[in-house]
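Q: Okay, next protein. This is CUL9 protein from Spizaetus tyrannus. I've checked the sequence twice, so it should be correct. Can you predict the 3D structure?
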Amino acid sequence: LRLLPRQRYLRAERADVSALERKRNVLCCLITRILKVEKQLHIDNLVFRVIDACQKGELGPGLRFLSFCCHSVDVLSCVLHLLNQGYLRRQEERPHVLEY
């Protein structure tokens, strides 16, 4: 006997979390790809380039993905994540410039 309806929202939450993780992974890939090519870049320029790539659906030359909406907050969050992981670093004399 089942008195309570099945909890479908738990499955929806898992799907949302999975989508957010995929989005974060794509953004982190974009950030590292851009900085690998540029070696160093002002954080504002990096944010604009990542957002532009997201709108165009491009990971780089010849690599495409489905375009999605991303905001500067999403990109900055990923930049902070990559800084904490040690993949990126700031220049000591110019902390607004990021290096790979």
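A: Here is a summary of the prediction. The mean pLDDT is 80. The chain has three helices and five strands.
Q: Noted. On to the next one.
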